[in-house]
Amino acid sequence: MLTVTEAASAHLAELLEQQDVPEDIAIRFICEQEGVALRPDNQREGDTTFQHEGRTVLLLDAQASELLAGNTLDVEDAKLTLQQPGGGE
To answer: Considering the entire predicted model, what is its pTM?
Structure first.
C-alpha cells in the first residue's frame, strides 16, 4: 500500500482548499503511459482513500494502488514527491 505522510496529506488538503474544490472531490492518481498524474475526481466504489482532518484528499483505484504499493508520498521543497522503496525517486 502507498504510504502518505502527514505533510503530504496536509499539502493535498491545502491544494484542494486553494482551488475551492467541493468537499466531495479529492485528488486521484491516474495511471498513464508516462507514469502517474494527479487529477481532481469523485470517490468511486473500491477506491483506497486517504484523509486529512476528516476530508478525503487522495483517491487510488486498484491499478494505482498496485502500481504505487510500497512507495511513500511526501512533500519536499513545497512539492509532492513519490519515494520508491529503498530511497529512490
So the answer is: 0.87
